[in-house]
What we know:
The protein is an alpha/beta fold. It is built from eight helices and twelve strands. The chain has a single domain, classed as 3-Layer(aba) Sandwich (Rossmann fold). Helix content is about 35%, strand content about 25%. The strands form three sheets. A six-stranded parallel beta sheet has the order 1-12-7-4-2-3, sandwiched between helices. Strands 8-5-6-9 form a four-stranded mixed beta sheet. β5 and β6 form a beta hairpin. The model has no long low-confidence stretch (mean pLDDT about 85).
Amino acid sequence: MSSRDRILGRLRGRAANPLSSQDATRPPRVAPAEELLETFTERMTAVKGEVVTGRRSELPHLLGDWLEAAGARSLVCGLDERLEGLLQALPDPVEILLFERTFEDLSRRLIDSVDAGLSHCDGAIAATGSLVFDSAPGQPRTVSLVPPLHVALLPLSRLYPDLDALFMEWSAQGGTQPTNRVLVSGPSKSADIEQVLAYGVHGPKRLLTLVCLDA
């Protein structure tokens, strides 16, 4: 008997264990926002991500300080109305580039001179320290992939205990689901054949999650 036959035989002989209706409809675990934020911060920083928290009125100053410390003078973002308040209050030294043209028109500048990208999270998962981004015309993925720094704005109300709770909430809301949904845990990282981990090889070297405590 070949290895393939032995593996298939074990799979066929394993008793099926489908989800019961009770499992499929169980309510998501509820946890205090402070507990979720603490877990998320622990998980995100463990994979070299950075987390800064503040109220809505404090975020422009906090972001401006972080960009200045990182040596960033320019910021690109999509035409996402959820970012307008933050962008309007950013310090003057930060140049803002709106992604209102095609990638071909902006590619040279995006690759050569833009320091940071700004996105709005559609959700986050505390258990894994992951950010969730939906594809949308106002939020091109290029913003989070090309610049060496990526800033993600996360409303605390969009932080969920785990993936199960997040999807149950979105299912309850109904509506059309996006064609693409991406989970991001920390900055870009890759390992060579010797398993030496390096950051920023195929994307941003640093990832900042800016948590809005009153949103």
